[in-house]
Design goal:
The protein is of the alpha/beta class and 125 residues long. The chain contains three helices and eight strands.
């Protein structure tokens, strides 16, 4: 029997085109497609769906409730690309015992972390 996995997340927005452009520019997904009206961004085996909804505000009132974590090979390069896209940082890139972490705020106010784990931290997981 196959175990349950998390394969995707839906980000709802009042301006999905703006949000999608930000994620494509800042994080360079493997693919950026449209499927049945959804913007679908592929990151490894994970899919980020971006769509509009009438029952959400322009800005997330509780952005700490769900934080999107993106595993990256070169956190410094990704942070620089994000800065070129005009990112707002909640927490700038920092070294935490050999692993690099930064938390950005997307255009809808969601928190987005980039994480480059050290080999030591990967083995501990």
């Amino acid at each position: 029997m196959k175990r349950t996995t998390v394969g995707s997340l839906l980000l709802a927005s009042t301006d999905p085109a703006r949000l999608r452009t930000w994620y494509v520019t800042a994080l360079e997904p493997e693919s950026d497609t449209d499927v049945n009206g959804y913007g679908v961004l592929k990151f490894g085996e994970f899919f980020l769906f971006i769509d509009s909804r009438d029952d959400v505000a322009d800005k997330n009132p509780e952005p700490g409730r769900v934080i999107l974590n993106f595993d990256v090979d070169d956190a410094r390069a990704v942070a620089a690309r994000m800065e070129g896209a005009g990112v707002t940082w909640l927490a700038e890139l920092e070294d935490r015992d050999g692993s690099l972490f930064a938390t950005a705020i997307d255009p809808d106010g969601n928190y987005v972390q980039i994480i480059q784990l050290s080999e030591e931290h990967r083995k501990a997981m």
